[in-house]
Specification:
The structure is a single chain. The chain is of the alpha/beta class and 332 residues long. The protein has a domain at 19-231 and 292-304: Alpha-Beta Barrel (TIM Barrel), CATH 3.20.20.100. It contains ten helices and ten strands. Strand 4 (63-65), helix 2 and strand 5 (97-102) form a beta-alpha-beta unit.
Length: 332
């Protein structure tokens, strides 16, 4: 790929996706964030990856969400994103929110997984090198580690902020009682938790009874990942499984076995509601997540600029009637 002569759009903040303050902080998040879990690894199209990041930034999407093991192979999403930053966005670093995480499997041996101080700090140092950065804006503990004292994990996050390697810290996929304790420890350490990232979509709603009210109580922002349920909440699977879709692959989190006749029937009925609203099912599913006042942003994972544009168009129709919310809730 040749070096780009890309210049960001001058009006990217006037043609915006909209911004929300993250919990009770001064940090604003775009309503739609771009996730690099899929489609940015070494096995993916580098030209399309570049175009998606440029298009996102041109349309006010300033938040780019990564983790140490994103991409195939592990680390390749950060590496490829770092190259794009260096070649295209070196003058615009202060206009971007870059987040990464550690907590899942990254390298072999006892120090490349979970939530120890050694793993979190070593992993972030590796992430910074891959992305050619001095700091990230948000660093997450990617999951709760039942075998490491929570004080150790949270103290590592606090020290990462105090060392200037991250501006804010967050947690992801923590049980409610452990999230409450994590909020307390971080607050006492002088580095309050900025954000909690969890799975949320029409089919996965457990956080409504736990994560959302707890975050509101403690002034913590919430970002939803997998708002389309790995693509199930789209019209992609209504008439079968497309050859190049996620469900067609033997690897990944969405498997053919999940697309039962009952699930496909629900998807079809949801699609009917979306059509009556004048939008796609994917757009309705994103808008549905954003209708929750505690949800500051949704993370989308797109494979093309067209798909990203379709997701941004969600915001043209993001309000619901009580009847629509009831009917969608019945199908969740």
């Amino acid at each position: 790929m040749s070096k780009s002569t890309y210049e960001p759009a001058a009006d990217r903040y006037t043609n915006t996706v909209g911004y929300e303050y993250c919990g009770k902080s001064g940090l604003q998040l775009p309503r739609i964030s771009l996730g690099l879990w899929h489609n940015f690894g070494d096995v993916d199209d580098p030209d399309e990856a570049l175009k998606m990041i440029q298009f996102a930034f041109d349309h006010g999407i300033t938040h780019f969400d990564l983790a140490n093991n994103y991409g195939t192979p592990y680390g390749s999403a950060e590496k490829n994103f770092g190259k794009i930053l260096k070649d295209n966005f070196s003058s615009y670093r202060d206009e971007m929110l870059i987040s990464t995480k550690a907590g899942h499997d990254m390298w072999a041996g006892p120090y490349g997984d979970w939530g120890s101080r050694k793993y979190l700090i070593a992993s972030l140092n590796q992430s910074l090198k891959r992305m050619h950065l001095d700091y990230v804006d948000i660093f997450y503990s990617h999951r709760y580690d039942p075998n490491t004292p929570l004080e150790e994990t949270m103290s590592a996050l606090s020290d990462i902020v105090k060392q200037g390697k991250a501006l804010y810290v967050g947690i992801s996929k923590y049980p409610e009682d452990k999230a409450r304790e994590a909020y307390r420890i971080l607050r006492e350490n002088g580095t309050p938790c900025l954000i909690n990232q969890d799975r949320y979509n029409i089919f996965t709603r457990h956080i409504e009874q736990s994560v959302l009210p707890l975050a509101e109580e403690h002034g913590v922002g919430v970002v939803a990942f997998s708002p389309l349920a790995q693509g199930m909440l789209s019209d992609k699977y209504i008439n079968g499984i497309p050859e190049n879709s996620r469900a067609a692959h033997s690897y990944g989190f969405l498997q053919k076995s999940q697309l039962t006749l009952e699930v496909i029937d629900k998807i079809t009925k949801l699609n009917d509601i979306a059509e009556k609203r004048g939008q796609s099912l994917a757009q309705m599913a994103l808008a549905w997540c954003l209708h929750q006042p505690q949800v500051n942003s949704v993370i989308v994972g797109t494979s093309s600029v067209k798909q990203l544009q379709d997701n941004i168009n969600t915001l043209n129709n993001s309000t619901f009637t009580d009847d629509e919310l009831w009917r969608i809730g019945e199908l969740g």
